Amino acid sequence: MHTWAERVSRDWPAFRTESRAGWRFGLAEGFTKRANCALVEDPGAEVAEVTRFYREHGLRPCVQVWPGEEAVDARLAEHGYERVEPTLVLARELPERPEAPGRTRVSSAPTPRWTELFAETGVSPEWAEGVVRILGQVTTAYGVHEEGIGRGCAVLDGESVAICSMVTAREARGRGVAGAILADLLAWAHDRGARRAYLCVVADNEAALRLYRRAGFEEVSRYHNRVLAD
After folding, report:
1. How would you class 105 by CB atoms within 10 Å of its CB: exposed for 0-12, middle for 13-18, buried for 19 or more?
2. Is 84 within 8 Å of 58 (Cβ atoms)?
3. pTM of this prediction?
4. Which CATH code fits 96-194?
5. Of 31, 77, 155, 162, which is least surrounded by CB within 10 A?
6. Tens digit of each residue's pLDDT, the chain (230 residues)
């Protein structure tokens, strides 16, 4: 399995995983593709196994494809799996504590406002609950801007931290809110031993890419999903 695939799946875990027939299948009741997809364990694995597994569980078959898995990618395409959501993995080192404005309130559990900000992304309350359940399986810090106009979270794993679930309220965009939250979360993580950070961002999200690159993140890998066409 690709090194980054292993890492990302550990920090955004499925509710249940099953390894068989050359795949590692993730199941999380359909909440997010990242937690409900197959990862390649054997490059020669049969695509039909993915189709069968997810159909049996009432989910649309999905595979996460990483560099070096081009042969698998080609077979998926032949079986009608469409390429969607190209995503970049960006990372940076944290040798020193980043300068941070201290405008983010960080807690060990999601506050009501942290959850309310899901509305800015247009997802349902049920979907929001599913994401909270996913993050509840790992060591997560939930940050909300002091004015309640943005949020993010940090998943801490030893000397590494994953930044995810960044949201800024529509009326506050362009005011540096996300940058402040990001810096505060990185500082929080550094204080607790993190010395490197990473995040995943959809490749065509130019605004997010500008923010993360200004914060010192650089591309270290990438992946895309292959989803079976209806």
Report:
1. middle
2. no
3. 0.95
4. 3.40.630.30
5. 77
6. 899 999 999 999 999 999 999 999 999 999 999 999 999 999 999 999 999 999 999 999 999 999 999 999 999 999 999 999 999 999 999 999 999 999 999 999 999 999 999 998 888 999 999 999 999 999 999 999 999 999 999 999 999 999 999 999 989 988 899 999 999 999 999 999 999 999 999 999 999 999 999 999 999 999 999 999 87
